[in-house]
Amino acid sequence: MKRILLFFIILPVLGYSQQLPDLSPFGELNFAWNPAMTGLYDYWEVSADYRQQWFGFENAPRTAIIAAQYPFEKEKMSIGGVFTHDNIQPLKFSTLAFNYAYKFQLGFNRNDQASIGATVNASQYFVDALEIVVNDPDDQLVPIGESSALSFNAGAGFFYTTYAGTRRKSYTSENAFFFGGAVQQVFPTKLVIQESNTLANWQRKMHINFMLGARLVNDNFFIEPTAWMNYGVPNLTNFNIQAKMEKPEAFWAAITYSTNQTIAIQLGLITVSNFAKDSYWRIGALGSYNVGDFGQYRGMGLEFLVAYRLVQ
After folding, report:
1. Is 60 exceeded by the pLDDT of residue 277?
2. For 14, phi and psi rounded to 5 degrees?
3. Is pLDDT larger for residue 133 or for residue 288?
4. Which structural domain, as residue segments, surrounds residue 107?
5. What domain count does the chain have?
6. Radius of gyration of the chain (CA)
7. Would 231 be classed as within a structural domain?
8. Deepest in the core among 40, 96, 221, 268, taking most CB within 10 A?
9. 164 Cβ neighbours under 8 A, 6+ residues apart
10. Of 27, 68, 32, which Cα lies nearest the Cα of 47?
11. Position 273 in a domain
12. Is residue 264 part of a domain?
């Protein structure tokens, strides 16, 4: 019964609701939702992330992300790539995105930084009707067999921070205020899957996000409160509020609250790598739980991150 319920909860996502994976609370992946945040500072990074949601449901949503970002300091630009695989059986889709960001100073102070970015992506959608459990297998509304479709789209974003660091000082060495925004799926293309009893025609909807935050630096650590607003056309809005504390080259901890009534707590370890000078491993784990009326049915969620960072 839970599997049937899960399918009918998720099916509208393709047509009228959130069509992109939820924002990850791990800041290392922010550039996957805003291309202007690609390679913001003086390091390049490769990361892998795995998320399992709703342990109360069989075959609940699972998301895997592999990402990389690299800044070209002299050219004042950055590039990045993100591969995302979302599995919400019987629906699966994989997306490969390429990001580009250009950085410049606005001149409000000596070390501020603004950036504009763009992303292009290709997505492969797959439906396996054999994984759908139904009471009436002859129902004309139920897809049959295996079907897939390919979709292309694009997005853009902007970002500004009052302090991006210098050649001698890290971006975490001074207080900063920052904000940004992005739009994804700017083209309302239609995703058509024909291998079914009825024609499935799902239109891609525009997604918009805005964020703001601050970095409050102490001698040994910094605190970073942030807030994100995510809007999916035509009428889906979600807010995430996070408070993070990090001791450089040691550890970090954060708590996140989402207006879908989910609380997430993350802990991370930062260790020096032996591969190269000024390189680090960042390993994090996150647990989430929905405190709303459906929390007892959804169960907990888990997310894990491994990132390798090399300071230039």
Report:
1. yes
2. -70, -25
3. 288
4. 2-213+284-311
5. 1
6. 20
7. no
8. 40
9. 40, 41, 103, 111, 112, 113, 171, 176
10. 68
11. no
12. no
